[in-house]
Amino acid sequence: MQISVKDAQENLSQLLDRVESGEDILLTRDGTAVARIVSMRSDTLPARGHAGQPSLEEIQARVRAKIDAFEETSAARSQDFLYDELGLPK
């Protein structure tokens, strides 16, 4: 649903009821989209984030499994490119 900010202010309670039922509300100002109201309930959230980003559930599962997203990077060696073999800045 698309609605102007002014109309949304006047009908906020009704809009929140619609959002709670799973509907997304697009707020516009002078015909230009400025914000979106979406439900915070996990059962109404999309499976994937914007532009193919992982969902919250996928991120949480990776953390629980302790998957290292940057296996090739070691914290002990993370600043090697900044210093030469004598420990001086390059």
Brief rundown of the structure:
The protein has 90 residues and is an alpha+beta fold. It has a domain at 1-39: YefM-like domain (YefM-like fold, 3-Layer(aba) Sandwich), CATH 3.40.1620. It has helices at 5-10, 12-20, 56-65; strands at 2-4, 25-29, 32-37.
List the helices and strands and how they pair.
Elements: E1 2-4, H1 5-10, H2 12-20, E2 25-29, E3 32-37, H3 56-65
Parallel strand pairs: 1-2
Antiparallel strand pairs: 2-3
Structural features, described:
- With 90 residues, this protein is α+β, with helices and mostly antiparallel strands.
- The protein has 3 helices and 3 strands.
- The protein has a 3-stranded mixed beta sheet.
- It is elongated, with a radius of gyration of 23 Å.
Question: Which features would summarize this protein structure in a list?
Answer:
3-stranded mixed β-sheet; 90 residues; 3 helices; alpha+beta; single chain; YefM-like fold
How large a portion of the residues is in β-strands, by DSSP E? 15-25%
Low-pLDDT residue spans: none
Strand order of the largest sheet: 1-2-3
User: Shape from CA axes?
Assistant: elongated
| Alpha carbon gyration radius | 23 Å
CATH topology of one domain: YefM-like fold
- Number-wise, the strands total 3
What is the helix/strand order? Answer: EHHEEH
Q: Tell me the distance between the termini.
A: 56 Å
Largest sheet: 3 strands, mixed
Structural class of the secondary structure composition?
alpha+beta
Mean pLDDT across the residues is 79
CATH class of one domain reads Alpha Beta
User: How many DSSP helices?
Assistant: 3
CATH architecture verdict of one domain: 3-Layer(aba) Sandwich
The residue fraction in helices comes out at 25-40%
CATH superfamily of one domain: YefM-like domain
